[in-house]
Write a sequence for this structure.
């Protein structure tokens, strides 16, 4: 889907008029109309505001596939499970169980993170332990600690 279709669907599902959106985003109703007609796409700052307003990622707004993974625990990320920044914006790098209010919820080592994740994983614990021990060092949070 294209931005114009995604945006229009989100607006209508939220029960908002073009005027309502314009007021919330501090733009003109004509700008909103041009987005819905596909004449223009909002600037990045406005995309961020739309993302926050509808609780979706910018990737979702632009129609990109969301194959996001928490860069702390490796969990697949969806907008409903993304961590939040201090201003309430979604964090597209970390899940809600690792990140909230602009900071990590736990200061831990890779080994401690593996042990925290194991009880939530189906299947053989030893196979999961091996998998996580190999996966976590490839994620941004842990690469930064090693650097």
């Amino acid at each position: 889907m294209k931005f114009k279709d995604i945006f229009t669907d989100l607006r209508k599902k939220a029960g908002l008029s073009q005027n309502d959106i314009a007021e919330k985003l501090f733009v003109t109703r004509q700008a909103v109309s041009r987005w819905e007609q596909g004449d223009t796409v909002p600037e990045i700052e406005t995309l961020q505001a739309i993302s926050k307003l509808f609780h979706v990622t910018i990737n979702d707004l632009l129609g990109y596939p969301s194959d996001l993974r928490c860069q702390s625990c490796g969990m697949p990320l969806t907008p409903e499970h993304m961590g939040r920044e201090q201003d309430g914006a979604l964090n597209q790098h970390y899940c809600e169980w690792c990140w909230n209010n602009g900071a990590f919820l736990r200061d831990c080592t890779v080994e401690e993170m593996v042990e925290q994740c194991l009880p939530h994983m189906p299947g053989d614990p030893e196979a999961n332990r091996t998998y996580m021990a190999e996966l976590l060092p490839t994620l941004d949070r842990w690469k930064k600690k090693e650097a």
About this structure: Strands lie at 68-69, 76-77, 82-84, 90-95, 99-100, 103-104. Residues 55 and 80 are 8 Å apart (CA to CA).
